[in-house]
Write a structure and sequence with these properties.
Radius of gyration: 22 Å
CATH class of the largest domain: Alpha Beta
Number of domains: 2
Number of helices: 16
Strand order of the largest sheet: 3-2-4-5-1-8
CATH superfamily of the largest domain: Tandem AAA-ATPase domain
Distance between the termini: 36 Å
Number of strands: 18
Largest sheet: 6 strands, parallel
Structural class: alpha/beta
CATH architecture of the largest domain: 3-Layer(aba) Sandwich
Amino acid sequence: MMELRAHQKRACDMARPILEKLGVVLLALEPRLGKTLCALTLAREVGGRVLFVTKKAAIGSVEGDSRLMGGWGDDLVVVNYESLHKVKFGGFSVVVIDECHRISAPKKPCKAARQIRGICAGAAKVIMLSGTPAIESSAQWFNIFWATARGPWVEFGSGIMAFYSWFKKGGYGIPSPIRIAGGQEVESYKRVIDAVADEVRPYAVCMTQSDVGFKQRARVIPHLIDDPVALSIGECIKRAGIWQDVIAENPAAILQKQAMACGGTLLNDEGDVVLTGSRAKLEFLASKLQGGRQYAIFTQYIAERSFLKLGLQELGFSVTFDMDEFRGGGAQCFVGSIKRYCEGFDLSWLDGAMVLYSLTFSGSTYTQILDRMANWNREEDILVHVLMVRGSVEESIFKAVSNKQSFNEAFYNA
């Protein structure tokens, strides 16, 4: 049976009285600190059947951890968010919500949050896990706790409109109109008073990698690459909403296609990949790869992955989409989805570097991917290279997600 590390025991000791008194606890442990084992330990102490909600790619890891604890049999049900509709309400003593920031969008709760609330209403205890809680906005805290059917704001009701009552009548929100296309103003629901975080803290156990004694944190190295081809295409899309047979019909699509153009590919309305002729980022990357070392390369867009694999192979590098093949030394470069691999994957064994070829607009995705190479035993530097076209929208995206990372760190260090 697996023994918890000292910091995991400490986290459980801190969480236990919160769970007993309030019925819900948030384990806000930074990535790579072993939140899953902490949650399973606490759940076993409560007893009864346990529902563990996580992402599909992490199911195997959760089940593996449960076996290390001696096995659970039918008392542990592990399900991904997309399969929540198959879970019958009732019958669970404990519900564990892994990566709870996934259900934290402000305003009306998402479908998964509504499904989880129905399950949690009949459970004795709820354990939430996240290394990046409410990173996009403190307004996200409301629906995180709303989904548990308990927490600091239960008096605002159980309906899907409860957020608006909390934001407006409760006085937690700071009205801040924003202007959209056509000059129309709409209300933004992302700004809330500072007291929100203070009201969350009694429900949370916070622990950072520094608290545990991690010797290395990710060192982000931004690279600005000159690419007049990508800039010209991006300007054309911004000005006219079209480039060749690629159409951007609204401001969000314009922003996305400008970013995508920086990576060398676009998609037309039929979903076909269009090569833009831009290879600056690809060639810059190839010029920096060192023989004898392995590199994990992550992208936002599917088309970029095939573009990178083919391009790097043409330049003499071995490339794979298979993580097992990569770990076994079968290829120098792994190319994968930044969204898929930002949570629950261990790259602490990697002796090379991580490369973010393109970024998502999500602060939580960015913050989580930075920690994939972290481990308390790691002595080597953790280098994360971020590739951006100079003067493009990518610079703005990098600034935005970096600011959200700082926002997340502020919650831990308050």
